[in-house]
Amino acid sequence: MSVTALLKRPNEEYAVFLLLPRPTRVLLITNMIYAFVLPVIEIFVGAYIMRSSNDPSIVAVYQLTVYTGIPITFCINGFLLNRIKISHLYSFGMLLSGLSMIVMMSLENLSVAGVAVAGLLMGCSFGFFWANRDFLALNTTNDSTRNYYYGLETFFYTITYIIVPVVVGSFLATTEAGGWLNGNVNMAYRIVTVVVFILTILSSIVIHREQFKNPEQKEFLFFKFHSLWKKMMALAGLKGLAQGYLVTAPAILIMRLVGNEGSLGLVQGISGIATAFMLYVLGRTTKPSDRIYIFSVGLFIFLVGTLFNGILFSAIGVMVFVLCKVLFAPLHDIAYFPTEMRVIDVVSRIEKRSEFAYIFNHEFGLYVGRFLGLGLFIGLATYVSEIFALKYALIIIAVIQLASIPVAKHIIKEANKLSTL
User: Fold this and answer.
1) Cβ pair 29, 204 in contact under 8 A
2) Distances (CA, A) of 268 to 82, 195, 359, 376
3) Sequence-distant (≥ 6) Cβ neighbours of residue 4 within 8 angstroms
C-alpha cells in the first residue's frame, strides 16, 4: 500500500480503526489529543530555559531532573494502582505536565533550584503518563496488532511534531518581532501554556470514557529476572542514551546556530507530512518480522544526521540533523515498543508476574541510559568545551547506538523461540 493509495481511501482506513477493540480506540484518541502537548513540552520548554538563562548547563539540569522524576513516579504509581483507578492516575499525569509548565513560567529568575523543581514536576507527570500508557497499550493490544497500533500513534505524534513547532514557533517569533503582545515573548509562552493545560484537560476527559482494568497482581518490585529481560534492559539503556542527549541538544544547537524559536519550528516542519504517512503505511503493512529492518534503518539515518552536524557545524548541518532526528525517532519507536511488549508477554508468562513489574523495571534501564547521555554532554561541555560537546558527543552516541541492532535481533529471535515453549 502506497501513500497515494492511502489518501484515496480514508473511509476504508477509518473502518480498519473501528475494528480495534473499544478500549484500544479510546486509548489511541486520548494519546492523539495529548500528542499536541508533547512537542511543546519537549521542544519549547528547553528553548524557553535557553532563552531566559543562555546557559546550556541549566537546560541539562532541567532534563536530568525530569528524567530523575520519571522512575521515582513509576514506583509511586505502582503502589497507587492498588488503590486508585488507572484512568485517574493516567489523567493526573497529563494534567501535571500543564501544571509544571505553569510553575516554570511563573519563575521570575531561572535559578538552578527553581528549574530543578519544575523539572521534577514534569518528570512526575511523565512518570504517571508513561507508566499507565504502557500498561494500557500492552493490555489492549496483541503482537499482531501492535505494528498498526504504534504506527497509527506514531503517525499522529509525527504530524503534531511537524504542525505544533511551526505554529508555536511562528507565534513566538512574530511576538518577538513586535507583531503581537508588544513583543513580550514571555507572555506568549504563558499563552501557549494555557492552551497546553486546556488540551490536558480534554485528553483527561476522554480517557475516562472507558473502564480500564488495573493490574491484577499487586507486587511489582523484583530484582531477579529472566535472562531475556536482562538483554531487553541493555537495549533500553542504549535507547535511553540517545534520549538523554536528543531532548537537550536540538534546542541548544538551533538557538546557537540557526536562530530563534521560529527557526526551531520551521526546521521541524521541513521533514514534511509525508514522513507521518510513511509511518502509518509501515504500521498497516509490516509484520512483526519486519521490525528489525525498520529499527536498523532508523539508526543509520540518525548516524547520518550526526555526521552532517559534526562535520558542517552550521545552520545547514543542524537542519540536516534535525530532519534525520525527526525520521529516526518514530522509526525507532515503531519497532522498539512492539518488541518490548513482545518480550514482556513472554517473560511475564514464564515468571508468572504482573506485566507492570517489567514496565516499571524497564524505566530504570532507560534512566541509566539517559543519565549517561546527559552526563556525557555535561562532562564534555564542562571539561572540554560546549562546541566539542555539541559537535562530537552526538556522533559518539550514534555509533554506540549501532550496537542496538545485533542486540535487538537476538532479543526478537529468543522471544519468538520462548513463545512456542
Assistant:
1) no
2) 41, 20, 30, 25
3) none
DSSP secondary structure, 185-226, as one string:
HHHHHHHHHHHHHHHHHHHHHHHTTS-PPPPS------S---
Under 8 Å between Cβ of 345 and 143: yes
The pLDDT value recorded for residue 287 is: 87
- Residue 205, all three cell numbers: 476527559
| CA dist 153 → 72, 133, 244, 275, 325 (Å) | 26, 12, 22, 13, 18
CA 68 to chain centre: 15
State pLDDT tens for residues 339-386. Answer: 999 999 999 999 999 899 999 999 989 989 988 887 887 788 788 887
- The series of mean pLDDT values per 10 residues for the chain, 421 residues long, is 57 82 93 87 71 74 84 92 92 88 76 83 90 92 88 84 79 77 78 87 92 84 92 94 74 67 55 69 84 93 91 82 81 91 94 92 90 82 82 87 93 90 69
Q: Is 183 left (phi over 0), alpha (psi -120 to 50) or beta?
A: left
Domains observed in the chain: 9-208+224-419 (1.20.1250.20)
Residues 86, 132 contacting (CB under 8 angstroms): yes
For residues 29 and 153, the answer to whether their CB atoms sit within 8 Å is: no
Q: CA-CA distances (angstroms) from residue 393 to 210, 303, 412?
A: 45, 12, 29
pTM of the complete model beyond 0.85:
no
Nearest to 43 by CA among 325, 306, 264, 258: 264
- Residue 174 is predicted with a pLDDT of 81
Residue type, 382: T
Residue 22 cell numbers, joined: 473499544
Residues listed for the chain:
421
What's at 221, amino acid-wise? L
Q: How far is CA 33 from CA 24, 160, 185, 210, in A?
A: 15, 10, 26, 16
Q: What is the pLDDT of residue 269?
A: 57
Alpha carbon 164 to its chain's center: 15
